[in-house]
Amino acid sequence: MLPLHPRTRNVLASSGLKLDVHVIDPVGYLEMIWLLDHAGLVLTDSGGVQKEAFFFGKACVTMRDQTEWVELVETGVNELVGADTGAIEQAVKKHYGRTVEDKTQMYGGGRAAERIVEILE
Predict the structure, then answer these.
(1) 73, exposed or middle or buried, with CB in 10 Å at 0-12, 13-18, 19+?
(2) How many other CB atoms are there within 10 angstroms of residue 43's CB atom?
């Protein structure tokens, strides 16, 4: 499913492009979390979604040339492909259905709050 902003839909329609995916209206936060949790792969151009995908154990293909989350790229859980159609297709084939694990506990391994309290005590 692809939550798509109405302006983006209009640009696609006016250019004659048709997507071979199920397009839905934009969703709220809780619906987006549900979609991430149930996705086989996340494709995005959003910085926040890259990290959220990681927290749900999903591989991510980022359609940008750079990211603020370089550690996700360095550990192989996120792949930058820019706007190159061939690179996007290759990355989808490579990563679809792949789950990722936080083996290095990059962001505290879900225990960041506990560690902060321990340090403060």
Answers:
(1) middle
(2) 20
Rounded to a whole number, what is the distance in angstroms from the first to the last CA of the chain?
Answer: 46
Strands 60-62 and 42-44: parallel
113 has pLDDT over 90:
no
Determine the Cα–Cα distance for residues 45 and 9; give it in Å rounded to an integer.
16
Least Cα distance to 105 among 95, 97, 115, 94 occurs for 115
Cβ atoms of 36 and 42 within 8 Å: the answer is yes
Measuring CA to CA, which residue among 119, 72, 94, 14 is closest to residue 111? Answer: 119
The residue among 67, 68, 45, 41 whose CA lies nearest residue 54 is: 41
Residue tagged 């839905």 (tokens)? 24
Report the predicted TM-score, pTM, of the whole model to 2 decimal places.
0.82
